[in-house]
Amino acid sequence: QVHLVESGGGLxxxxxxxxxxxxxxxxxxxxxxMGWYRQAPGKQRELVAAITSGGSTNYxxxxxGRFTISRDNxxxxxxxxxxxxxxxxxxxxxxxxxxGSYEYWGQGTQVTVSS
Length: 115
Fold this sequence. Notes:
By secondary structure, the chain is an all-beta fold. It has strands at 2-7, 10-13, 18-26, 31-39, 46-51, 57-59, 67-72, 77-82, 91-99, 102-105, 109-114. The chain is globular and about 40 Å long.
């Protein structure tokens, strides 16, 4: 079993930055691809960024050039550096990880961007 613990959310002004962290514990050698999703009130959950175990990344068009996903395999942690934040980035951000044939989700962390 893999457990994901997220941190780093908060309130920030438009144009500011936040860094989200998601630490995986449990079957640490079984963690494969990881990603960040977000869901705003009244909207569908959407993929923000993903990273493979080898470091390949993928981003939603809306965050390209502003967000950077990375991982520290020694710490079993994935990060999302969010720069130039916009009001439309306001959402609950969820960490997702694959391990074996299962997927795991973090509890979510609120990101609020004031305009």
